[in-house]
Amino acid sequence: MTSLPEPPASLSRMLPYLAKWSVLSALVAVLAGSASALFLFALDTATAWRIAYPAIVWGLPLAGFAVGWVYWRFGRAVEAGNNLLIDEIHDPTNVVPLRMAPLVLAGTVLSHLFGASVGREGTAVQMGGTLADQLSRLPRLGPGDRRLLLMAGISAGFASVFGTPLAGAVFGLEVLVIGRLRHDAIFPCIASAILADQVGLAWGVHHTYYAIGTVPAITAWSIGAIVVAGIAFGLAGRAFAGATHGLSGVMKRWLPYAPLRPALGGLVVACAVWAIGTQRYVGLGIPVIVEAFAQPLPPWDWLGKFVFTVASLGSGFKGGEVTPLFYIGATLGNALAPLLHLPFAMLAGVGFVAVFAGAANTPLASTVMALELFGPAVGPYAALACAVAYLVSGHRGIYRAQRGDGHKTTA
């Protein structure tokens, strides 16, 4: 992998560098933040329609076929999604086709409208990275600049869709290589993430508030309990990544015609919704995540979301993995809390970020997210759980294009 250019060392060269990347980061932020705002508004509308007309879930097989056909016909070059962006940062070849942004936006909104269990991070990151990459066509920008733009776009998309600018910045620096943080892009990623979040807020975006409740004092018991919980969160993240990739591989072997995969997955999900009589495990699941911070929940909620999300993403629906991972983590933490004698709201918050840390191999970004969403008091617990989950999950992650540097312990 070719390294990114180091920032200039002398002050006379640093000022032009900062000026250049301040302008480029602002452009990336406006593009990514605006795209995320449009996406979130469309997602709210689609979710409201699905809740108002629950029978719409029976259209999920047709929606899946439509999404699969459009990607098969027009989007083969961008079907890899987040992995394409990561690959282009590692080994730059061609500018990411602009059609990635509208395709993933439409595909994700359609998936949510009819009841697939998918997230939103993948869409925001793909839009942010794609739009940022178009700026690499500007004159006097080289391959190293293009890598910085892509990383800034990833950070801006993540930050603006979740309202976590610092976590978004760290995510863009951490997600590329397992076990290594890319400091050479720190200014573009931080500047783009902070500004993109502000752009989203300026458009009127509102993010969900999660009340963490009382955080207990650190004791030998609480530390031990968090380590145990972290192991469970890491195993959940590892299982999620393995199941999603495994189902995707099976579907590709048995159904070579791509549009049939999400059509079949949509039929299975629709029948499952009808069989259990609830839409609790489809869509983003934000209301259930909020419940996990407010009251004890059925201990099988995390498994329900796990199965529905693997079926949706593994069969080819578009969206993202992260919000479903938040759901799985929060409800699993809620279920473990009485067993570990910890407050359920606090352990829901820790699980929220730790399952994501294990599945995405991003323990630092996940810890920073906990600080931004839940406050500093939960920081030591979240950091420990994210570290344990990251170690337990091994090299199995939701992003196939991630590379390892040989320093991560595998389970």
From TrEMBL:
One of its GO terms (molecular function) is chloride transmembrane transporter activity. InterPro entries: Cl-channel_core, ClC, ClC-type_chloride_channel. It comes from the Bacteria. Pfam families: Voltage_CLC. It is found in: Membrane. Keywords: Membrane, Transmembrane, Transmembrane helix. The chain crosses the membrane at residues 20-43, 55-72, 148-173, 185-206, 218-241, 262-282, 302-327, 339-361, 373-393. It is a multi-pass membrane protein. The keyword Transmembrane helix applies. GO terms for cellular component: membrane. This is Voltage-gated chloride channel.
